[in-house]
Specification:
The chain is of the alpha/beta class. About 45% of the residues lie in helices and about 15% in strands.
Length: about 400
Amino acid sequence: MGLHRFHPTPSGRMGTLWALSSIRNAALVEFGSMGHMLYGRATLKRMGKDPDCKLYSTHINESDIAMGETNRLTRAIADIALRDQPRVIFVLPSTIPEMIGTDLSALCKELQTSYPHVRLLPFEAGGFNIELHRGVQETLLLLATTLPLDVPPTPNPTFNLIGSCTDLFQFNADTQEIVRMMEGAFGLKPLCIMTSDTSVEDIEHMGGAHINLVIRREGLSAACHLQQQFGTPLVEGRPYGMQGTYSWLEQIAQILDKPINQSFILQEQAEARPIMEIAPGFFSHQKKTVKLSIGGHADVVAGILTYACSELGLTPDLCWCDSPAMATEDLPYWQEAQWSQTITNRHQGLLMASGEVLTWAGRNNLAMQIANPSRGWQMYPYSPPYMGFRGAMNLATMWMNEVVRIL
């Protein structure tokens, strides 16, 4: 691992840990040193999520490494199964067991007969060979392929929200906005919010939903599997802006063959009108062209940028994503060396990125943060969203105030 001035890109193991840590009625045991688990738990609290999944670490010593012993893990699983009685125990390797070739899948298969009422589910993202978003993708796919049961559709239409995970900034606020809009526009309630607010039982009943909403590309493979297994249609995308959100709702209405509640739409438009009537003219009448530089998750960057440019008339400036697998010609992947040299305290225009980037650029307004890692604590449970109708109002107002502050 190279030297980093700031936090390096998290590994796939962190993506797996953060995705699983919010699942209720489950336990997670990591076969490895306790430091990683302590760091993961502390980071979760900074992100605004107290782990709902019981998190454990076996620790590890020289004998485990040199002799390839797994007695610590076997005893830990036995103790957790007896004491907590979870529906599922997730088994996660750390870096050293992954490197020496400990076969957790074979071990869990061997132990499974001893625990008929507890599902042992091993994961393989223990090393540094995959990055955060790949770990999230593999975790969502494994959950979707192993836990859902063969259940009939729910009597009243419901939906699954796939991809709401704790690694995304403002995951809780954006999820609440989608739930609010789905109920207001269609009268639909969530069956499973995968994984930021869910339980093992919710995942087991995912097949009963009438539609799957995929809000990040890492969840697409899981949704495609559910579509193949249960015939559940899917809609992929993150709704940003007034027009973008309405187009997103129209896609859902077409698939469900269900009209949008127009009284709800009229109410949302009336609430947003005072802001949306002023914002485009405010930006166009500035002495300097208002440019927006933005970096973070590729789906978040693309969605916010489209709203800013197409609906409010902002001009795109420096844009980058935080995953090499998601990089394109128009949205490159920037490592620490690239963004730290390009984004400085002399940077002009609006800037939305991680807390570290904003601090490095001398921007004290962390309200412009859209990505982790964060320099602050995101513990307030009622923060305004970025997605949906209310997110459109929040972003427009935020940008107007930032222009007044810096230009």
